[in-house]
Amino acid sequence: MTAKYSYLSCAINFLNKKDIIALRLSLIVIFLFFGIAKWFEFEVQALTPIITATWLNIFNQVLGLHGTSYFLGGVELTTVVLLLLGFKNPMAGAAGAAMIILTGLVTLSLLPQLGTIDSFILKDIMVVAIGLTLLKQDLIRWHQE
Length: 145
Fold this sequence. Notes:
Radius of gyration: 18 Å
Helix content: over 70%
Number of strands: 0
Distance between the termini: 36 Å
Shape: elongated
Structural class: mainly alpha
Strand content: under 5%
């Protein structure tokens, strides 16, 4: 056995399953912060031009700006709970991952109406990819039960 093989083997063994934990934790933190922020006035004000200039205005017409922000925050915080439960329950994790994918796709769907590309949009390309990765892993875990 070569030293290179030994080091690679140790690194792979160390990282085994930690990558998925890191991805899950990163989305939990991101969605927790975004979800909590939606309950504050500064976020409602930041979302106003996005909501009113896109198809999300449907929610505004029914719930108002604050209600729409609270609704979006509720979806994000529900996703956090499902992702947390996903550490032990792969069905809950798969549901959380599906919500991650859906919220990312919803955000990306706003791009044509917003007409600008910024970090608000770009992060969701990565969010969808991480969601797909978590969904795959949770479905594998669910299948193995």
